[in-house]
């Protein structure tokens, strides 16, 4: 069964660590995220034109997946 990433959370730091969420349909860098792909621990965010918005390489707290519905015969 093929699964796709729906969202993920990372630990981000400025003056104090906090949890930041990235998710499909949410805007990042002025563009709406339509796809998230993980490769070798790096999460890549893509827009609706399949153009790379950014790569995220931060400690991951959680990943939420979307599973396709199984066909019932």
Mean pLDDT: 92
User: How many H/I helices?
Assistant: 0
The run of helices and strands is: EEEEEEEE
The CA-CA distance between the termini, in Å, is 17 Å
Low-pLDDT residue spans? none
DSSP summary, beta strand count: 8
Range of helix content: under 10%
Task: Provide a descriptive summary of the structure in words.
By secondary structure, the protein is mainly beta. The chain has no helices and 8 strands. The chain has strands spanning 4-12, 18-23, 27-28, 31-32, 35-39, 42-46, 52-56, 60-66. A 3-stranded antiparallel β-sheet has the order 2-1-8, with no helix packed on it. It has a 3-stranded antiparallel β-sheet with strand order 5-6-7, with no helix packed on it. Strands 3-4 form a two-stranded antiparallel sheet. The model has no long low-confidence stretch (mean pLDDT 92).
Keywords:
3-stranded antiparallel β-sheet; single chain; 8 strands; mainly beta; 73 residues
Secondary structure elements and their pairing?
Layout: E1 4-12, E2 18-23, E3 27-28, E4 31-32, E5 35-39, E6 42-46, E7 52-56, E8 60-66
Antiparallel strand pairs: 1-2, 1-8, 3-4, 5-6, 6-7
Summed up:
With 73 residues, the protein is mainly β. The chain contains no helices and eight strands.
């Amino acid at each position: 069964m093929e699964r796709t990433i729906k969202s993920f959370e990372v630990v981000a730091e400025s003056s104090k660590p906090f949890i930041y969420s990235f998710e499909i349909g949410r805007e990042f860098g002025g563009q709406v995220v339509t796809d998230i792909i993980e490769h070798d621990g790096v999460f890549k965010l893509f827009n609706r034109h399949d153009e790379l918005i950014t790569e995220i390489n931060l400690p991951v707290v959680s990943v939420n997946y979307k599973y396709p519905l199984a066909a019932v015969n």
